[in-house]
Backbone:
């Protein structure tokens, strides 16, 4: 596999999505009954493209600076696992026909930042836009945020982290221990402008 630094962000996402879909093709019902195997594939697939430490720091927002290094690492790991669980659950419960990386991508505004647009096509023909935000880190493009049907997941999770910190009287350990972000398939289908 070519290294990410020699690939455009679009090529990297396209290759990752194609490889992932090839592993699932025709085996959806199998994975619905073997969710742990699907989670392992999702974990491996996301590990290739996502910067979980950066995403975790972004979700923690202003609370990141006062967290201990151990809390930061623990949250990044917990966040990663909840994202994998949510993604795997969505794959077996949502009826989709195809995932397509668009051929016509927007131009990059900055050398170290990019967006890659794709679409999720439902079995009912409904098209849901997805946009990956990437940043160049150590010569590799990594996903740092996703916008699904107008819903900015990074911002949604940051708001949920902030709310949890307020409810738990800024107890980092309690928030990390109980982290369970809420973004339902129905909410994503309605979209950010509903």
Residues:
């Amino acid at each position: 596999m070519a290294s990410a630094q020699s690939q455009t962000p679009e090529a990297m996402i396209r290759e990752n999505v194609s490889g992932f879909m090839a592993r699932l093709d025709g085996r959806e019902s199998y994975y619905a009954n073997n969710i742990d195997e699907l989670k392992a594939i999702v974990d491996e697939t996301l590990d290739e493209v996502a910067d979980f430490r950066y995403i975790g720091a972004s979700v923690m927002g202003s609370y990141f600076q006062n967290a201990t290094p151990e809390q930061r690492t623990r949250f990044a790991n917990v966040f990663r696992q909840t994202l994998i669980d949510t993604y795997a659950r969505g794959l077996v419960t949502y009826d989709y026909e195809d995932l397509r990386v668009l051929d016509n991508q927007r131009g990059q505004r900055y050398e170290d930042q990019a967006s890659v647009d794709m679409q999720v096509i439902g079995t009912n023909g409904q098209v849901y836009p997805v946009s990956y935000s990437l940043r160049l880190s150590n010569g590799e493009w990594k996903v740092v945020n996703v916008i699904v049907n107008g819903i900015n997941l990074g911002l949604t999770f940051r708001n949920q982290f902030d709310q949890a910190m307020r409810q738990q009287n800024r107890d980092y350990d309690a928030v990390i221990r109980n982290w369970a972000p809420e973004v339902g398939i129905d909410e994503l289908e309605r979209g950010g402008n509903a």
